[in-house]
Amino acid sequence: MVCGSLDNNPDTVNLMFSEYPDGSVCADYTADHRHQGYTGLLHGGMTSTLLDAAMTHCLFMQGVQALTAELTVRFISPVCTGDKLMVCARLLGQRRGVYQLEAWLAKGQQKVARATAKFIVPSQDIALAHG
Predict the structure, then answer these.
(1) Which residue intervals define the domain Thioesterase in the entry (predicted)?
(2) Domain range for 93
(3) How many CB atoms lie within 10 A of CB 15?
């Protein structure tokens, strides 16, 4: 749902991540009614997906292809469909092949959700492709 370009995935939300000098990445997203749970509210699963995608793209920007091993999401306040949001992520560190990241979803200056995650590089018998 989040991944890929419109050319190869017509259902993508087409997030366009920008990288910043500190290594963080951010993308704009408008909460779509197709992604609602309760009427008028963005589904928590979509919020989690956006946060995971931001952290994945943060690693992509550093030349790392990895899989989510652990994801912890904190929902701070509800997101209404139509809300204009920014999703961002940054790398916190890496140890023994495990990458630790954090991400947040914000409406203006207010964080509406945040996440931490651990990512692992898969064994060589698992090929990863993105696009």
Answers:
(1) 40-110
(2) 18-120
(3) 17
Return the DSSP state at 123.
P
Q: How far apart, in Å, are the Cα atoms of 93 and each of 9, 119, 121?
A: 32, 11, 14
Q: What is the CATH number of the domain that holds 26?
A: 3.10.129.10
**Percent of the chain that is helix, strand, coil (3-state, to 5):** 15, 40, 45
| pLDDT tens-place string over residues 14-68 | 899 999 999 999 999 999 999 999 999 999 999 999 999 999 999 999 999 999 9
Number of domains in the chain: 1
Tokens 């140890």 found at: 95
| Integer Cα distance of 73 and 21 in angstroms | 26
Closest by Cα among 49, 51, 23, 24 to 115: 51
Tell me whether residue 119 is exposed, middle or buried, using C-beta atoms within 10 angstroms of its C-beta: 0 to 12, 13 to 18, 19 or more: buried
Query: Number of C-alpha atoms within 13 angstroms, CB side, residue 40?
Result: 0
Residue 8 maps to a domain:
no
